[in-house]
Amino acid sequence: MENYMQYGMWIKPSWAPPDWIFGPVWSVLYLIIAISFGYVAYRYVRRTLPATVLLPFALNIIFNVAFTPLQFTLGNQWLASLDIILVLATLVWALYAIFRYAPWVTYVNIPYLLWVSFATVLQLSILYLNL
Length: 131
Fold this sequence. Notes:
By secondary structure, the chain is an all-alpha fold. It is 73% helix and 0% strand.
């Protein structure tokens, strides 16, 4: 079935970056995510942030973690596309929710936002090219 092709067999847009770039980029982003999202969780546990601020961060982590198995284990382009849209949506929600409490968290996550925006367009392009 087409949706379950191996990653290397999918048609990708000509502007897709080489595969080797993803590891270094995500390593830096995961460090940013760990520090800033950890700070949000710490503030929530200390009761200086409401649950409504923590929720989008928690959902973002769940959707972020789900992407790799959906994309590379299942090879399901539809689910991976839905998931990356949810990653982007929860990230925008999270950065909006935290801004009034800790603007630096929003600013430090701009590279994450830019990369996820790019990754969303890339994933949707791969889905379209492999229909």
